[in-house]
Write a structure and sequence with these properties.
Blueprint lengths: L4 E4 L20 H24 L4 E4 L16 H4 L1 H13 L3 E4 L12 H21 L6 E4 L8 H13 L3 H4 L2 E4 L7 H11 L3 E4 H6 L10 H9 L10 E4 L17 H11 L5 E4 L5 H13 L10
Helix pairs in contact: 1-3
């Protein structure tokens, strides 16, 4: 279909574990090896299920390799599980699946603390290595956030730009930046892109709850087009994050499922643009399947070649 639809990390339908981890105190080499083996096996099975259900976009959990950037994990997983990575990478490429990862909120490239910057780079480094082990091209991405404001947002932005621009090129070819719901809105990201060239990922819910309250915030198509223009041919098709607000919860909290009416309106309005969509919902793949069913049966979509 024109837009790949995907979900993040966990498949609830199968219950196959892909992100098993443990407490730091229990992170022995034996336990870590058992967890890595189990997660890679589970990932293979989930990708097979995705293929069978025509889902060609998937975000792999950062817990696939537990404590990957922590000194406690001394396993050379990129060597010891080379065969597993080769099999996974071949399956992904043969079936035209697109893969993403989203590091946990431990990446703060704009921190005033050099130690935190170093640990952030190490966290990104293992994600980059994970993609390299799979042998995937640069259309498969790592998405993360700018970081904190640290009491001086302009200076924090300058630090981000400086640190990012000094990253190795093979790092930067993997990275994308997402607007968040508290500190860095779409306009902040556009300015950062002008100094870095980093591709930008639009998150609809984050934009709804955190913007400048000006008229231009309502022109979502212009914002999306600007974000999409930051992607080059090597980076592939832009992607967005889509979710619905959870009722009676903090602004920006993801709902259990997609609001189908709202998504239908969004999809029809922006169908003419080229982008992929990751659903960020609690019910994971079930939202993708529900949207597929809507696209097949709802008369509003009959004039579109969506499936």
């Amino acid at each position: 279909m024109k837009h790949r639809l995907g979900y993040a990390c966990i498949n609830l339908t199968t219950g196959i574990p892909v992100n098993k981890t443990c407490k730091l105190a229990n992170a022995s080499e034996e336990n870590l090896r058992e967890l890595i083996q189990s997660n890679l096996l589970g990932l293979n099975k989930v990708l097979e299920w995705n293929k069978a259900n025509n889902i060609k976009l998937f975000r792999i959990s950062s817990d696939t390799i537990p404590f990957a950037s922590h000194p406690i994990n001394t396993i050379k997983w990129w060597q010891d599980y080379k065969n597993e990575f080769n099999d996974l990478g071949n399956f992904i490429k043969e079936n035209d699946i697109r893969i993403y990862m989203h590091p946990r909120n431990v990446v703060y490239l704009n921190s005033p603390d050099p130690k935190i910057i170093d640990s952030s780079i190490k966290e990104l480094e293992w994600h980059v290595k994970f993609f390299e082990c799979l042998g995937l091209d640069y259309t498969n991405k790592i998405v993360f956030h700018v970081g904190g404001g640290y009491g001086d947002k302009p200076e924090a932005v300058k630090r981000f730009i400086k640190v990012y621009n000094n990253l190795p090129e093979h790092f930067k070819s993997r990275l994308t930046l997402e607007n968040d719901d508290r500190m860095y809105n779409v306009w902040d990201l556009i300015k950062i892109n002008e100094s870095t060239g980093i591709p930008l990922v639009y998150d609809n819910l984050h934009h709804e709850v955190f913007n400048t309250h000006k008229l231009e915030d309502k022109d979502v198509e212009t914002i999306m087009k600007k974000f999409f223009s930051t992607w080059d041919e090597k980076s592939g098709l832009p992607d967005i994050h889509y979710s619905s607000q959870k009722e009676n919860a903090r602004a920006g909290s993801h709902s259990d499922a997609i609001n189908m009416d709202s998504f239908a309106e969004f999809f029809l309005k922006y169908y003419h643009l080229d982008f992929d969509i990751i659903f960020e919902t609690k019910n994971k793949e079930k939202s993708v399947l529900a949207v597929y069913e809507m696209l097949k049966t709802d008369p509003r979509f009959k004039h579109l070649d969506v499936l």
